[in-house]
Amino acid sequence: MRVYYAAFVTAVLAALCLSAAQNGDWPAYGHDGGGQRFSPLALINRENVRSLKVAWTFRTGDAYQPQKGRPTAFETTPLYVDGTLFVSTPVGRVFALDPASGKPRWIYDSHVNKDGGYGDYSHRGVSTWVSPSGQRRIYLATIDARLISLDARTGTPCREFGDNGAIDLRKGLRISPHEFSEYEETSPPAVIGNTIVVGSAVADNGYTNMASGEVRAYDAATGMLKWTWDPIPQDPHTLGADTWKNGSAAKTGAANAWSAIAVDPARNLVFAPMTSASPDYYGGERLGNNLFADSIVALRADTGVLVWYFQTVHHDLWDYDVAPPPLLFDMQRDGQTIPAIAVGSKTANLFILNRETGKPIFGVEERPVPKSDVPGEMASPTQPFPIKPAPISRQHMTAADAWGADEEDRKWCADEISKLRSGDVFTPPSLQGTLSLPGNIGGMNWSGMAYDRNHDLLVLPTNNVAAEARLIPREEFDTRMGETRSRKLNGDWEFARQRGTPYGMMRRILLGPKGLPCTVPPWGTLLAIKASTGEKQWEVPLGQLGPNLPEKWGSISLGGPIVTAGGLVFQAGTLDPGIRAFDVETGKQLWKGDLPTSARSMPMTFAGQDGKQYLVICAGSHQPAGKAPLGDYVVAFSL
User: Fold this and answer.
1) Which of 7, 167, 367, 372 lies in disulfide reach of 428, CB 3.0 to 4.6 Å?
2) Contact indicator for 155, 107 with CB cutoff of 8 Å
């Protein structure tokens, strides 16, 4: 009886979520649990999008620059359910807003320590669940790693959940954090049936034994732990254990899921995108392919049992996480419907797999890649490459490929690259210094992709920017560490200790004297791929890196797209303060809306009770990479 009741509840909740997604709500981060980001609304369409105007602007008051570390990154995508807009912030506050005016109905404050020294002071939104009795809850995963359940009507904590409404996610890990700022939550939890699933954000490069990256599931009503899945196998007799040499599995951390997790209620599956093991740039203490780091894994939602996996990078030495959220869709091919999953990577490789089996639909080749020349390191001799789609951005660069705004700029870039190991993707880090293209921001990043079911298109932003990484012998590194500890996307070096290894690390985005990338523009594009064939349909430059630069050069993008039945792609995420609408069939830009600052987030859209369709974006700037001021704006557009 219990099994049948649980299945019944799961089916009802899945139907409710689907119904909400179809009637103009936005009930999940990616619109639906599978992350398609497709809205059925068409009140705003290709014919009238030029008439979009700002309807209202709300300021959270939560933009914050701590005394040490990076400022808040307001990457939130709001939810819209039950006639209310729910917005959350990096400092742990949740706002229930009137959707027509932007005025608060209630505010909840989780009292996050604003000066916690967070490695990635980011936040991307909340999640929601409706109990069998009809009570709607909002779930907030805070930057200081608490999972909090709120009553959606009042904003008060649900005291029966966890410990008086909250769960401390730092407790119960295989490896506890060394420092407060090492273990964070930046993405909204996943909801499947009556289960809440969370990953974590772990700072990668401090130690070999960073905090462990377990994926965990909790009862949505009580907060009771249901299961835990460790991405690093601890039983020497289990699958993947032999890919961690010399007992490294027990003392290695991270390999966590910091991006959004996707769910398939009909198949009782959870899809978690896993990241690199610690530390990122030296793997001599964790020799082997390192399953299940840098993999997409399918887990049973009710038990956490591994169903299948696909590893996108073997023995990661580049910080090449599976950063984009996986996207679930049904592919029509050869007269058959194939349940598919699209899995992006910072490598610029996009894998399309059967989501029931994990098998590549278009095929994958293991290709030889360069060897490491660092003592103690052993890079994987091959890496997986999809036969289709083609790489979404460039994967090869030498000094001969250097670009500059003028000859002086180009020569500086060429001279700098000539000092480094360079060439193809997966050239390992070195003591000499290595050029990586894509750099550590991708390729694809957490921005992810959208799927237009009406046109069978996967739409995604790309980055085309190289990075330089260098390993430094321990004694020399400890001397140099006092120079700077900043992490910026403006050419400054970032240092990381990588304690427990013979080497520290330094890296930077490779920019020329004028502050422009040394790679050939465009530096960012919006790309559409026909999902059923893997072929590119169109690609256009995206955004402006600076106000006086040509739009054809594009911009770095950190923020994803959505698509609508109105034939539109909406995309922000660029360094310039704007949000754009594109024709989904051609990529032609149809509209640009001005913002108070740049938006490092994904937009959303909903149908209000006043009969209008609204487009909403959170704008908080790209600091410290961009020049736009730090912001706390929620901006709504309508016709």
Assistant:
1) 372
2) yes
Residue of 319, 401, 452, 632 marked catalytic? 319
Sign of CA dihedral 78, 79, 85, 89: negative
373 is catalytic: no
pLDDT at 343: 98
Instruction: Please tell me the predicted confidence (pLDDT) of residue 68.
Output: 84
pLDDT for 484 equals 45
Name the residue type at position 338: I
Q: What is the DSSP string of 305-364?
A: -EEEEEESSSS--S-----SPPEEEEEEETTEEEEEEEE--TTS--EEEETTT--BSS-E
Give the residue extent of every domain in the chain: 2-638
Instruction: Provide the 3-class DSSP secondary structure of residue 406.
Output: coil
Written as one string, the DSSP assignment of 440-497 is TT-SS-TT--EEETTTTEEEEEEE---EEEEEEEHHHHHHHTTS-----SSS--EEE-
Confidence (pTM): 0.95
CA 503/CA 501 separation, integer angstroms: 5
What pLDDT is attached to residue 21? Answer: 56
Q: Which residues of the chain have pLDDT under 50?
A: 1-18, 483-491
Say whether 217 sits in a helix, a strand or coil.
strand
If we measure between CA atoms, which residue out of 552, 628, 553 comes closest to residue 595?
A: 628
Residue 406 neighbours by CB distance under 10 Å:
10
Distance CA 124, CA 50 (A): 28
